[in-house]
C-alpha cells in the first residue's frame, strides 16, 4: 500500500512440460460446483480470454441464448442453458453475464521461462484476497507486466472469483508461484532487475529516476505491508505521491497507479 509523499499467457513452449502444480490443483475445490474436472470461471471477459488461450484445458462451455452471440468463434461450442441454471452453478451473487466455462487451472511457469518477456514484474508478498489478486492481474495485463510472482503457500489457487476480478488478465499474465520471496528477489537482482518495494515512508516512485532499469515491483499484504526480510532485500522502498487527503490506497489500486508510473512514456 502507498502513502503520500498485451502479450497473452500462453506462448511458452516450456509450459507444456511444467507439471509441478497440476496434481495438487486439479483436485482442489475452487468454490463453484464442479463437473468432476477443473473449476468454473464466469463473466464475458474471463471466459473469452480463456477460450482464446491455447494453453487452457477446457471441459465445458455454458451460455444463455442471449450471451452466445458475444462469444468468440472457437472450436468450443456452448451448451445453451437458462440464466437460472447459471445462477445455481455460480451462485446468485456471481455476475456471470450469461456465460460459464469449466477449465483446468493454468500451469505455472518457472521464473526462467518469463524473464525475457518485456515489462515490469510484479511480486506479491503474502497478498491473500483472490479479488485483490484478480484486480492486480487486470492492471498487470493493462500495463504490459511480464509476470506476477506470488508466494505459493500463502496464495489461493485459481477461482472463478479471481478470474472474474482479473477480467481476462488471468489468461494474459503468467503467475509464478515461489516458496521463498526473498530468495526470488535475489534471483531477479542477479538477472539485472531493480527491486522496488512499495510501502509507506519510501522515496517518491518516479519513472524518470529509474532510467532504463527493468523493475520488479513488490507489494505487501493489506495492513501488514512488506515483511521485514522482503523489505531488506529490496534495492529501494518507494511510495506513490498523492495530493489529496487520503493517506493510503488498497493494494490493487496502488498496483495500478504504480504500474502506470513505471510504464508511462518518458518525455
Give a description of the structure.
This protein is α/β, with parallel strands linked by helices and 267 residues long. The chain has helices at 22-25, 44-51, 65-68, 83-90, 111-114, 130-142, 160-166, 181-190, 207-210, 228-233, 251-263, and strands spanning 39-42, 58-63, 79-80, 99-103, 121-125, 147-151, 175-178, 193-204, 214-220, 236-239. It starts with 21 loop residues before the first helix and ends with a helix. The protein is elongated. It has a six-stranded parallel sheet with strand order 7-6-5-9-8-10, with helices on both faces. The protein has a four-stranded mixed sheet with strand order 1-4-2-3, with helices on both faces. The chain folds into two domains: 29-103; 111-263, 3-Layer(aba) Sandwich (Alpha/beta knot), CATH 3.40.1280.10. The protein is 30% helix and 20% strand. Residues 40-109 form the RNA 2-O ribose methyltransferase substrate binding domain.
Amino acid at each position: 500500500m502507498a502513502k503520500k509523499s498485451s502479450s497473452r499467457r500462453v506462448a511458452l513452449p516450456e509450459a507444456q512440460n511444467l507439471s509441478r502444480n497440476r496434481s495438487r490443483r486439479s483436485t482442489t475445490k475452487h468454490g463453484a460446483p464442479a463437473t468432476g474436472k477443473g473449476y468454473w470461471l464466469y463473466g464475458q471477459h474471463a471466459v473469452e480470454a480463456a477460450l482464446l488461450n491455447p494453453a487452457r484445458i477446457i471441459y465445458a462451455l455454458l451460455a444463455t441464448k442471449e450471451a452466445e452471440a458475444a462469444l468468440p468463434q472457437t472450436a468450443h461450442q456452448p451448451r445453451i442453458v437458462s440464466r437460472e441454471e447459471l445462477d445455481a452453478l455460480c451462485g446468485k451473487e456471481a455476475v456471470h453475464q450469461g456465460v460459464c466455462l469449466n477449465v483446468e487451472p493454468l500451469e505455472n511457469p518457472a521464473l526462467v521461462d518469463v524473464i525475457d518477456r518485456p515489462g515490469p514484474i510484479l511480486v506479491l508478498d503474502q497478498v491473500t484476497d483472490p479479488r485483490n489478486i484478480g484486480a492486480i492481474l487486470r492492471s498487470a495485463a493493462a500495463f504490459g507486466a511480464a509476470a506476477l510472482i506470488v508466494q505459493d503457500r500463502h496464495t489461493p489457487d485459481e477461482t472463478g472469483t479471481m478470474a472474474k476480478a482479473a477480467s481476462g488478465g488471468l489468461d494474459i499474465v503468467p503467475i509464478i508461484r515461489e516458496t521463498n520471496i526473498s530468495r526470488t528477489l535475489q534471483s531477479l537482482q542477479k538477472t539485472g532487475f531493480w527491486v522496488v518495494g512499495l510501502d509507506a515512508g519510501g522515496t517518491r516512485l518516479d519513472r524518470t529516476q529509474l532510467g532504463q532499469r527493468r523493475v520488479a515491483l513488490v507489494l505487501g499484504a493489506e495492513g501488514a505491508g512488506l515483511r521485514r526480510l522482503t523489505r531488506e532485500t529490496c534495492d529501494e522502498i518507494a511510495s506513490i505521491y498523492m495530493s489529496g487527503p487520503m493517506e493510503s490506497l488498497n493494494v490493487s489500486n496502488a498496483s495500478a497507479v504504480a504500474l502506470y508510473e513505471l510504464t508511462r512514456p518518458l518525455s
